UniProtKB/TrEMBL annotation:
Pathway(s): Purine metabolism; AMP biosynthesis via de novo pathway; AMP from IMP: step 1/2
Name of the protein: Adenylosuccinate synthetase
Database matches in SUPFAM superfamilies: P-loop containing nucleoside triphosphate hydrolases (SSF52540)
UniProt keywords, alphabetically: Cytoplasm, GTP-binding, Ligase, Magnesium, Metal-binding, Nucleotide-binding, Purine biosynthesis
GO cellular component, one term: cytoplasm
Any one biological process term the GO annotation gives: IMP metabolic process
Record-linked NCBIfam families: PRK01117.1 (NF002223), purA (TIGR00184)
Length: 428
């Protein structure tokens, strides 16, 4: 039962595709377990590059069954746009399975997301405005709409009406916006449901059956550990659980069927949106990292905030996820630096924190404690083994491994798919 969970170990955009490539043809299913189209990842096949937002990365591989689990919030319009775009490029999307229990992002969720964020002003969260948070809020408030609701007109109308009862009051009286028409939303969702129906399945049963048959399932998380609604830098987080535990609740597969948990980390750190970031750089070094690493969001195009590697959050990611392996990406971006700072701890008013503070007010105020590592100038993209890396580069990787408390099993050495060094197998 090779169930492999793949998660981001920082604030996202770590380059999970490198890990997916290493697992490669050994994967039979790729199951997305959280988030919505607020996440973005790029899959490169030969000379072709595919920017995906909602679809699992396995959609590109004709031998893989891609699955959208019940923990994902699905915007059908976005899903069909992605499917249409891929099919126009010759990618067969007919294998896609969508959980009948996944929640739907309705048009009014996007409206609520945007007006609420504007209303918050300086207290804004930094959402993408795509309706993800309001859809999850409806899920928790038990007024959400699930995929299987789209196939019963009367039932769907009642659910839309219940969901909009309070929202329309808020839109009109608080935000000075027009009320949303229940009938119009119902008709739109029914039409989308007709097209969605061929993809819908009991995905929990499908995945459990596959694991029982000895097939390999890769559980793919959107966003990353530090954006987890429970374990991240709350309230500057996403609205779901992108940590390893979310793979179970987001797909209906029990924890005893998970055999590996792989965390992906950059050799430095980036973040998009609001929230604390202890090692963030506001000078020319931060801009240098941004330019060298091409750090702009796949989904939003926003420039990413950049900073040095933070071992405190990597230790935390190892703890929260139970990581068995780390894939270290974008090591090549640091080439050319004479010295590379690594954050080994935090300091606040003379008090040292070697571990992640639970008080977010403390976390927002801490200063990084740096350890300086010697850099390297050699091009590492042609290195095919760890021993081929420059000695100072090897020392940097070993130190990050020691500080993270988890073995580094693979190293990204360049932008191409084959620019990677495999130190340990990611599949038993």
């Amino acid at each position: 039962m090779p169930g492999i969970v793949l998660v981001g170990a920082q604030w996202g955009d770590e380059g999970k595709g490198k890990a997916t490539d290493l697992i490669g043809t050994k994967v039979d299913y790729v199951a997305r377990f959280n988030g919505g189209n607020n996440a973005g990842h790029t899959v490169v096949v030969g000379d072709e590059s595919y920017a995906l937002h909602l679809l699992p990365s396995g959609i590109i591989n004709p031998n893989v069954t891609p699955v959208i689990g019940n923990g994902v919030v699905v915007d059908p319009q976005v899903l069909f746009e992605e499917i249409d775009g891929l099919q126009a490029r010759g990618v067969d999307c007919s294998r896609l399975l969508v959980s009948e229990a996944a929640h739907i992002i309705a048009p009014y969720h996007r409206t609520i997301d945007k007006v609420t964020e504007r209303f918050l002003g300086k207290h804004k969260i930094g959402t993408t405005g795509r309706g993800i948070g309001p859809a999850y809020a409806d899920k928790i408030n038990r007024v959400g709409i699930r995929v299987h609701d789209l196939f019963n007109a009367n039932h769907l109308h009642d659910k839309v009406e219940a969901s909009l009862h309070q929202k329309n009051q808020m839109l009109v009286k608080l935000y000075n916006r027009r009320a949303v028409d229940v009938d119009a939303v119902t008709d739109e969702l029914l039409a989308l449901g007709e097209r969605l129906k061929p993809y819908v399945a009991n995905t929990s049963l499908v995945l459990n059956t596959a694991l029982n048959e000895g097939k390999t399932v890769l559980f793919e998380g959107g966003q990353a550990t530090m954006l987890d609604v429970d374990h991240g830098t709350y309230p500057f987080v996403t609205s779901s659980n992108p940590t390893a535990g979310g793979a179970c609740t987001g797909t209906g597969v029990g924890p005893t069927k998970i055999t590996r948990v792989i965390g992906v980390s950059k050799a430095y750190v980036t973040r998009v949106g609001e929230g604390p970031f202890p090692t963030e750089l506001f000078d020319e070094q931060g801009e240098w990292l941004r330019q060298q690493g091409h750090e702009y969001g796949v989904t939003t195009g926003r420039p990413r905030r950049c900073g040095w590697f933070d071992a405190v959050i990597n230790r935390y990611a190892t703890q929260i996820n139970g990581l068995t392996d780390i894939v270290l990406t974008k090591l090549d971006v640091l080439t050319g630096l004479k010295e590379i700072p690594v954050c080994v701890a935090y300091d606040l008013d003379g008090i040292r924190y070697d571990d992640m503070p639970t008080d977010q007010a403390v976390f927002a105020a801490v200063k990084p404690v740096y350890e300086m590592m010697p850099g390297w100038s050699e091009d590492i993209s042609s290195c095919h083994s760890f021993d081929e890396l420059p000695p100072t580069c090897q020392a940097y990787v070993k130190r990050l491994e020691e500080l993270s408390g988890c073995r580094i099993s693979a190293i990204g050495t360049g932008p191409q798919r084959d620019h990677i060094i495999s130190v340990h197998s990611l599949v038993d």
